[in-house]
């Protein structure tokens, strides 16, 4: 059987953005073969899950929490998510407004299957996370990207979003703190966007997986506007806040009719999330110290990496205000992001992500994660600068 016998969904979920991780995969294979590679690609830092969280999972397994969970999630975790969300957003949020999924990615994919279909359009700011094209189009909708400007730090431009709205616009997907840009959208603009979506019956979906990694000020969110929550959805997880990337537990928060639809989809898609993982997640939600500790670590790592990259006059970037990555324009080298990333791995043993997966306008960018210790990041920055300067000399010859 060949690919022509597969559904059209396969083409929608395997577009160009799905190839963005190829350099990282190559680096991982080399690491497994014993090569000394500094991997600054996939957003899975070298931090360990807090011991209390891991212990809770072990205790849960030993006490028999290895059965099917309720489809929308264990009641205690749903309540815990709601309580945690109220500390972030204020107002009242009930357990019924939450559904547990296998990570933010699972919650996001399921959300768009319930929100959109063929003929609908979804507006997504560019640069965007590389899985968004597949997430948005899997159910048949069309993704409409709106390019945010590097000169403005890739901040939220409401006028550009409004200009892209048509009578087919069903949803707008935003991500703050942003992966890959590190931009943090300001609260007033988010308020205005939430109001605009509410008044025009457009769903606003906010991916806030980096909620805990905001370096200046409090986390901002469109969901802080209680009067617009009937058209606003948040997807989130503990992956970044508590170093739980591999645990695969996340959630969606939204109005009752939306969470009821998600619960029905959960039955068909995943039939619940592991009980013992959900028990551990309850412990993590109560652990505010680890989230603050990790935020401070990432702030120092950001500074170490960016201070090192500044030593080249040919790397252009905004200092990230949140998240775990710097989005760097390398167009002065004359290389595409893919060529730069492949060459850097081959010449300097540093793995980063080429920017083409974050949108067509990002073809001459790379994403560099501050995912390891400060000294290793300083070493990586020196090698990146050295590689950049070597390419500038080759360009001049």
- The figure for the number of domains is 2
Q: Any idea what the CATH architecture of the largest domain is?
A: 3-Layer(aba) Sandwich
- Terminal Cα span: 51 Å
Q: CATH homologous superfamily name of the largest domain?
A: Type I PLP-dependent aspartate aminotransferase-like (Major domain)
Write the layout of secondary structure elements.
Elements: H1 9-13, H2 22-32, E1 38-39, H3 51-62, H4 75-89, E2 98-101, H5 103-115, E3 121-126, H6 132-137, E4 142-147, H7 158-164, E5 169-175, H8 187-199, E6 203-207, E7 232-237, E8 250-253, H9 256-269, H10 275-285, H11 288-309, E9 316-317, E10 325-329, H12 337-348, E11 350-351, E12 353-354, E13 365-369, H13 374-396
Parallel strand pairs: 1-11, 3-4, 3-5, 5-6, 6-7
Antiparallel strand pairs: 2-8, 7-8, 9-10, 10-13, 12-13
Helix pairs in contact: 3-10, 4-10, 5-9, 11-13
Task: Walk me through the structure.
By secondary structure, the chain is an alpha/beta fold. The chain folds into two domains: 3-48 and 289-396, Aspartate Aminotransferase, domain 1 (Alpha-Beta Complex), CATH 3.90.1150.10; 51-287, 3-Layer(aba) Sandwich (Aspartate Aminotransferase, domain 2). The protein has helices at 9-13, 22-32, 51-62, 75-89, 103-115, 132-137, 158-164, 187-199, 256-269, 275-285, 288-309, 337-348, 374-396; strands at residues 38-39, 98-101, 121-126, 142-147, 169-175, 203-207, 232-237, 250-253, 316-317, 325-329, 350-351, 353-354, 365-369. The strands form three sheets. The protein has a seven-stranded mixed β-sheet with strand order 2-8-7-6-5-3-4, with helices on both faces. Helix 4 runs parallel beside helix 10, helix 5 (103-115) crosses helix 9 (256-269) and helix 11 (288-309) packs parallel to helix 13 (374-396).
